[in-house]
Amino acid sequence: MLLDAGRSCLLIVDVQERLAPAIADIDAVVDRISILMRAAARLSVPMLVSEQYPKGLGPTIAPVAALAPDGVTAEKTEFSAAANPGIRARLAGLGRPQSLVCGIEAHVCVLQTVLELREAGRQVFVVRDACGSRKPANAEAGFARMAACGADIVTSEMVVFEWLRRADSPLFREVSKLIK
After folding, report:
1. Spatial distance between the Cα atoms of 46 and 37, rounded to a whole number of angstroms
2. Model pLDDT for residues 119-151, shown as the tens digit of each residue
3. Does any domain span residue 2?
4. What whole-number distance in Å separates Cα of residue 23 and Cα of residue 10?
5. Annotated catalytic sites, by residue?
6. CA–CA gap between residue 167 and residue 152 (Å, rounded)
7. Are 42 and 171 in contact (CB under 8 A)?
8. Which of 2, 47, 142, 163 is least surrounded by CB atoms within 10 angstroms?
C-alpha cells in the first residue's frame, strides 16, 4: 500500500540532547528527520514529537525542535509513545490511519512504539534512514522485528515521493528539492 499524505501522520520519537550524541551516524538520521518534517509541513501532514523523560535526557535537539509546530511535543516515561495516554489520544484524534515513525533508539522506543501501534490496528511505516541506535546491530534487529510484525520499512525518499504521488503536483518541485 502506498503512503497517502491525507491519511498520514508523522511521529518523531525521542531525538533528545543527551541521547543523540551516542547514536551511530546521528547527523544523517537528523538530516532525514528534518527532510520528513519539512515535507510534512508543506503537505499538511500532522506531526507529533515525543520526549522520553526530558528531565534526564534533555529536550528534543535544536534542529528537530525548530521544525516542530507549537504544541506537538509530548513528554512520556513509557518507552513506547503509543503506551502514553496523551500521545495515543492525539494520534486517535488526528483521524489518520497511517503512522510514519522515526527517531531513536530503533530497537527500544521506536520498536515498542511500532509494535503497540500495529497492535492497535494502525498502518505503520518505519523510516529506516531516519532512525538510529547506539549500535547498528541493535537497530538492524529492531527493523527486522518491526517488519516481521507487519510494519513497512521505508526510506525518507520513498515517503516524500509517495506523499507527492505526481510530478505535476503543485508542490513537486519545492518538496522534491528537499531530498537532493
Report:
1. 9
2. 999 999 999 999 999 999 999 999 999 999 999
3. no
4. 21
5. 14, 76, 109
6. 24
7. yes
8. 2
